[in-house]
Amino acid sequence: MTVLTRGAYAGPGTSLDFKTGNWRSTEKPAHIHAKAPCHAACPAGEDQQAWFAKLQEGHAEDAWRELVSANPLPAITGRVCPHPCETACNRVAVEGALAIHNVERWLGDEAMRRNWAYPVTEPAEDAPDVAIVGAGPGGVSAAYHCLRHGLRATLYETAPEAGGLLRSAIPRTRLPRETIDAELARVLGLPGITLHTRARLGRDVTIDELKRKHAAVLLAPGCQEGKEWSVDGAVPADLHEGLHLLKEFMDHGAVPEAKNVIVHGGGNTAMDLCRIMKRSGAETVTLITASVLPGPDADPSDVINVVPRELEEALEEGVEVIEHATINRLIMKGSQVCGAEIQSLRKLPGQDGRSRRVGFEGTERVINVDMVIPCIGERVDPEGLNGLVDHGYLRPSDRFGRLAEERVLALGDARGDRGTVADAIGDGRLAVSAVAAQLAGESDPPADARGEMPSGGLNLGYYEGISRAVAPKLAVADRTFDKEIEGDIGRAAVMAEAERCMACGNCLACDNCWTFCPDNAVIKTEELAVDGSHYLFDMDFCKGCGICAHECPTGFIQMLPEEAGG
Questions:
Q1: Global model pTM greater than 0.85
Q2: Cα 325 from chain centroid?
Q3: Residue 48 near residue 39 (C-beta atoms within 8 A)
Q4: Pairing outcome for strands 378-379 and 225-226
Q5: Taking a C-beta distance cutoff of 8 angstroms, is the pair 44, 113 a contact?
Q6: Does residue 476 fall inside a structural domain?
Q7: Which of 129, 224, 453, 556 is most open to solvent, judged by the fewest CB atoms within 10 Å of its CB?
């Protein structure tokens, strides 16, 4: 039998003799488990609040298991993700965001070091098998989530080994090959996953063939072709397209010599190439980007889409950035570029209400340059894709990635609306959830409709200021092409970061509501209180004063109109 307890001084002859609940007229308290902003912002679908809670209890392996329920590659994403979760973190209102990516990386590395087992079991021999084209982060994520749903997975990869752009287009300074090899081997070695390498779509396998042999086909081919680039039709004879140049560097460890370099773009490929060219001996390297640098007045939708620490390190290394600008004209000497005219841009609303970047006359200036590297995006190679490519991309009809062809879904950057490793991992999870539901004859999994907890919904007075952990970094002079620049923060710092988590929108079992209620209207179970289910509101005595909601540190208690449920 569950025994309920009230606060002190609630015995016979006290306030319980007076049912003050009939005083209540407008509002009543309710438990509302809102989404933490970090969870809402995570493209991979991680619930950072949940795994930080496990760390607060001192259970690192449980934290990792909670993390990999969404993202099977935390050692990789902890290094390369732009971590929008940190930008969204409510701790910014106190003294600074949690170092989420550093903690995620540590958990991933610790799991590999200790060989923690992924929380999946081998599917039945006769379980439906899902074909996945492409063994990059999206495809590997999809294969892993197949196991979580009791499905088998068969991967078809064009390259000799899995990894996709993780292996071919992210420098070792950000992502060591040892980390890729170790984490991918652990996932792809799980029973129920089969990998076929050197299997090219359109040459070795076809979508029609895969549909006949498999329950569904997930397409994660990545974007392997650069977009055509020119400035009013002018193209240097020795043009080096960004992704192609980066892949060449990854394969051969060298880039063409240049003295003054412009990189035109605003993504991670552009930033990587800026740093590679500077480290290769270029005297000046200038990034020309239509976006804006981060700052207090910057429009979040206009901020350059790169990993923040990579931008910081590039500036340390001497890369110049010209924001809100474009190349207006190339100055050629024969077929060789020798200069570029740069023009400033501004984002202005058009007649249709949509904002567009517009060039401003009179802002033109010329800079000397002997190499221009365009990084304006990539597109899908259409070979073998049954005409599903639309203007360079696979364009799904819903968030699960469904395409026009039945039982065929798309994920990763091939969709055109994705661009990060975390995006691809989240796509893999969602696509498999839809396939599993369809095979079980069920409706699509619903989206998380919970509201998000803003910092204004917290009682920040309960949170002590604690400095954020700072990861060690190589000095600029010590940075090479092979050494990882950012280091591990270590277990002690990880646990300290866990203590900084404010558990936004979740119950801390702090007893504040039970302690501060003046009418003994909050009761709890005699068992150890661990979450909101252990606390109840007795509406016979609650007069709607709102003290419990005000004193709830996390915003888990909210005042609702009297007629609302809860």
A1: yes
A2: 27
A3: yes
A4: antiparallel
A5: no
A6: no
A7: 129
Integer Cα distance of 232 and 329 in angstroms = 7
Last residue of a domain, one of 356, 376, 396: 376
Q: Could you tell me where the beta strands, DSSP code E, fall in 135-191?
A: 152-156
pLDDT digits (tens, 9 = 90+) for 386-444: 899 998 999 999 999 999 999 999 999 999 877 799 999 999 999 999 999 999 999 99
- Residue 429's domain spans which residues? 129-225+379-439
Domain annotation covers residue 515: yes
For residue 263, what are the contacts with CB-CB under 8 A and spacing of at least 6? Answer: 242, 270, 273, 274, 277, 285, 286, 287, 288, 373, 375
Q: For residue 16, what pLDDT is reported?
A: 64
pLDDT digits (tens, 9 = 90+) for 1-34: 566 676 655 555 556 667 877 888 889 999 999 9
**In whole angstroms, how far apart are CA 317 and each of 173, 214, 276, 314, 474?**
13, 50, 10, 5, 12
Give how many domains the chain has, as a whole number.
3
Place of tokens 């005595």: 541
What's the pLDDT tens digit per position in 441-487? 999 999 999 999 999 999 999 999 999 999 999 999 999 999 999 99
Mean pLDDT (whole number) for 282-305 = 89
How far apart CA 341 and CA 363 sit, in angstroms, is: 10
The DSSP-derived string for 396-418 is -SSTT-B-SSTTEEE-GGGGSS-
Separation between Cα atoms, residue 302 and residue 165, nearest integer Å: 25
Residues 263 and 220 in one domain: no
Residue 566's pLDDT is: 47
DSSP, res 306:
S
Q: pLDDT at residue 145 above 80?
A: yes
Are 238 and 360 part of one and the same domain?
yes
Instruction: Determine the pLDDT at residue 418.
Output: 74
354 and 308 housed in the same domain: yes
For residue 513 the two structure tokens come to: 């509501």
Asked if 103 contacts 73 with a C-beta cutoff of 8 angstroms, the reply is: no
* CA pair distance 60, 494, nearest whole angstrom: 10
- What lies within 8 Å, CB to CB, of 394 at 6+ separation is 219, 380, 385, 388, 403, 410, 414, 415, 416
Q: Is a pLDDT exceeding 60 seen at residue 360?
A: yes
512-515 long-range CB contacts below 8 Å, 24 or more apart?
512/548, 512/551, 512/552, 512/553, 513/29, 513/548, 513/551, 513/552, 513/557, 514/7, 515/7
